[in-house]
Amino acid sequence: MENKKTNKETITSLCKQIQTYDKSADLDMVTLAYDFAKNAHEGQFRKSGEPYIIHPLAAAHILAYMRIDPIIVIATLLHDVPEDTTVTLQEIEDNFGAEVASLVSGITKLGKLKYRGVERYIENLRKMFVAMAEDIRVMIIKFADRIHNLETLDSLPQQKAYRIALESLEIYAPIAGRLGMDEMKSRIEDLSFKYVYPKEYQRIVQIHEERITGKEQYYKKVQHVAAKELQKAGIIDVLIVGRNKKLYSFFQKLQKKGNDVDKVYDLIAIRILVPTIADCYTALGILHKMWKPMKGRIKDYISQPKPNAYQSLHTTVFADSGQIVEFQIRTPQMHEEATFGIAAHWHYDEKGSHMPKREIQWAKELATIQKEVLNKLSDLEEIKVNFLQTRIFVFTPNGDVIDLPESASAVDFAYHIHTEVGNKCTGVIINDVMQSLDTPLKNGDVVEILTDKNRKGPNEDWLQFVKTHTAKQRIKSHTKRKKVTAWLKAVLPKK
Ligand code: MN
After folding, report:
1. How far is the centre of ligand 1, averaged over its atoms, from the C-alpha of 67 (Å)?
2. Which residue numbers are catalytic?
3. Stretch(es) of the chain classified as CATH 1.10.3210.10
4. Cα(386) to centroid of ligand 1, in Å?
5. What is the DSSP letter of 68?
6. Average of pLDDT values for 216-221?
7. What is the pLDDT of residues 164-195, one digit of tens each?
8. What pLDDT, on a 0 to 100 scale, did the predictor assign at position 325?
């Protein structure tokens, strides 16, 4: 998405944008929130010298362009009011209701990030995880807030700009990625990249331009040919979209490939949106019939979704005159989820349902852990590894998705379902095959737990292979209880 000139953003343009996706939005309420915030921030200015209100207004625009639920947009307009002005949360609740007030309160609890060494950094992380676990919508507002701050970093002293950009790259972007908010993630990354690695940024921009210049026509032609062939095969409703440039992600891939530009193929990818999953596979077949696919580059993320639930078919082909082109094939629903992630579920939809499809269990677990153990830098590293990168999704026999750390076992799964299921589990069937309880689960496994009502409780040996905090704690507390009971039995007088 291109940068929009903030000075063209007005409350009128905000309302207009909201109306494009929510005809029944309460625009009076949106306008009221704007006037309320403008009044409250009267006399305050951004570092750039502009009136403060341009910041919440810009953040609200970022979300409105992502078609986010208007209630979140309203809270975004108000997000800095209690922190920076004399207006209280109570007044916000009186004027805008409990839901808006609760979102604003979540943001206020997060506070302004003031970097004072490692301690403060961890404290900020903690706050973020707690906020996330309480209401993920608060993070959506926080990302929009951060994106606008990154867009205006130039008005800050260099050292401060660097620090904010680094933190965004290291913490905000991975969290956005973990939540499946691809669009947020790449915007945060590209905006930060420039400040954290200025030289590399310039180099990547140059490579990008060299590879794109003069090729627009070629890509248009390839898109046109592909669309025509798909339509011939009966897939009428084909939408082909180009891809935003993702400079930081290109930079990372380049580093992985030993800086060999020719080995990074997906700088430009052509996205094909087709109505159904069956159409996705048909489309893949058609492309491969037209153009020879490159070995090892066909990826089926539909049957094996990525840990953040991303779904698509990917392939790289030798298109006309031997040019290498990557295709990503998906349904419109997959596209929406890939772009907005969990936020997608707070999009306005006709049925008026704004609930997430599944709970963000890992965020809750994280919040519990931070209360107990997060106090060293090594914990921070552990958390980054455990929660931001390596998670898997497995299924119950009913098709419910369960989110677990990589190489978690059936016992972790059982405790995730219910403490009693964990305590009474005796065996597991993974993908229709009987397995031992310590078998590491893989992404996409269908897991059925076998229980025995008469089982007394968990086996202490399970502690050697369980991965989740929840399972560890439950097993330990049960064994502790057992020991106390045994001790009581021994010391209490016999009946
Ligand atoms: Mn703000």
Report:
1. 20
2. 83-84
3. 11-196
4. 29
5. B
6. 84
7. 898 888 878 887 877 777 788 899 999 999 99
8. 87
Backbone angles phi, psi at 149, to 5 degrees: -65, -40
Handedness of CA 33, 38, 39, 40 (dihedral sign): positive
What residues contact residue 422 under an 8 Å CB cut-off, 6+ apart?
Answer: 411, 414, 415, 458, 471, 474, 475
Q: Give span(s): CATH 3.30.460.10, the chain.
A: 205-346
Ligand 1 mean position to 144 CA, how many Å?
A: 9
**pLDDT tens-digit map of 92-107:** 999 999 999 999 998 8
Q: CATH fold of 11-196, please?
A: Hypothetical protein af1432 (1.10.3210)
Q: Span 205-346: which CATH code?
A: 3.30.460.10
pLDDT of residue 346: 53
Q: What is the dihedral of CA 371, 377, 381, 384, to 10 degrees?
A: 50
Nearest CA-CA partner of 24 in 394, 350, 410? 350
Q: What confidence tens digit (pLDDT) does each residue in 398-438 have?
A: 766 677 877 899 999 999 889 999 999 999 999 889 999 99
Ligand 1 center from residue 79 Cα (angstroms): 6
Is 390-491 assigned to CATH 3.10.20.30?
yes
Compute the C-alpha angle 177/182/187, nearest 5°. Answer: 100
**CA torsion angle for 123, 198, 190, 14 (degrees, to 10)?**
90
| Residue 330 bridge partners (DSSP) | 273
